[in-house]
Amino acid sequence: MKRIAVFTSGGDAPGMNAAIRAVVRSGIYNKAEVFGIMRGLEGMIDGDLIPLAADSVSNIIQRGGTILKTTRSPRFLTKEGMQTAAEKLQKHSIDGVIAIGGDGTFRAAEDFHQYSPIPFIGVPCTIDNDLSGTDYTIGYDTAINTVVQAVDKIRDTADSHNRLFFVEVMGNDSGQIALMSSIGVGAESLLIPESVTDMEHLLYVLDKGWNRAKSSCIIIVAEGDEEGGAYKVAEKVKSHFNQYDTRVTVLGHVQRGGNPTCMDRVNATRLGVAAVEALLAGRKQEMVGIINNQIAYTPFKNAVKQHPPIDAGLLKLTAILSN
Ligand code: F6P
Asked: Which residue among 128, 130, 225, 264 is the active-site one?
């Protein structure tokens, strides 16, 4: 394993830079040359590779975003795209590739294997925390802390005005951000794509809060909830329950940026090093993860097969505590 390439792909996540740094430094420690593929799978097709020395990753562990840039690449999903990318990796004599990204990235890496024998190892990086084979994806901890900081501020103003707020958080098909942040901010209720939303129950919770003179209510809505985003849910609620003055906040891409938390930096560092060691040990087409604080390896196809289930015990906490 002389020449290792690393790329970031899909939606960026805080901690990607820490993972790149870990891959580069541990690759060099293990006497390999490390190359960065710019702009994810797009850059792989274009052969956009740059050498990465130890000092090229100085001072990035604390920075959000990704120094290698990222894309979602429809071009890569074509036969021509994959064939061209395979030729480019071969031309650069790449022996192994580390893919830093989420489920779309690992699906692409698995499909690519029919066009290239070069081994890939994945590092789970997405704010959505929606991969099997790791307890936490890199970026998730930072994102939920960003949500908590924002909603704490919303609570201040909601409380001053006796208002009801619907706060939309990211998670197109994952309620993990909504679940954890709801507990962290003491939300009155949450709406997530993994469970069918019971609008009757939501109205009951709001009515109960109003009757016991709650001075504010926060409802967290995952963007992918089947009732629609926070604006739609607020409209539906208002047509049946209009006691509170109501406002909507969509947190959006603020959740994707910012300095990674210590937890995300540490996990990114552990997983970046583990990914290099996995390649050196001859592993391939697997994602490295952390399960019960131990490094674990999961074939790409299993990591993306289904989302980890929502923890029913955690889901119940909001219902118990919003009484
Ligand atoms: O997968 C990460 C994520 O932030 C999702 O939570 C969200 O639905 C999506 O990416 C947004 O993607 P984009 O940045 O392309 O709008």
From this structure: 128
